[in-house]
């Protein structure tokens, strides 16, 4: 499946990503970039970006990267470390990269940065690679 089709499939079918405003900017085999402009709805009670918003951004980049080979890949384990709080108005970018893969499992590292290039978080995730083809995006 082409990178364009993966982006289109996620754009059409990822309801949470659409609700949050996550935009996939780049997809290739085993890699993906996603962006999120932090708005009021992304903030927690302390007035900084909610950890769930950061996790969701990173997880959507993971979904694009891990499904880029054309078969369904599903999260089995994910761990995020957040290093810095981010305020309203920041733009966060998640860059997902495949670190290792076997026949059934693959490990990804997703780095989240702000518009200044500061590392905000790192998300390490393992996916289970199924033999089920992704649905057609059309």
UniProtKB/TrEMBL annotation:
Q: Does the keyword Zinc-finger apply?
A: no
Where does the Thioesterase domain lie? 47-120
* Pfam families in alphabetical order: 4HBT (PF03061)
Annotated CDD domains: PaaI_thioesterase
Keyword annotations of the record: Hydrolase
Q: Report if keyword Glycoprotein is assigned.
A: no
InterPro entries cross-referenced by the UniProt entry: Acyl-CoA_thioesterase_PaaI, HotDog_dom_sf, PAAI_dom, Thioestr_dom
Query: Any idea what this protein is called?
Result: Hotdog fold thioesterase
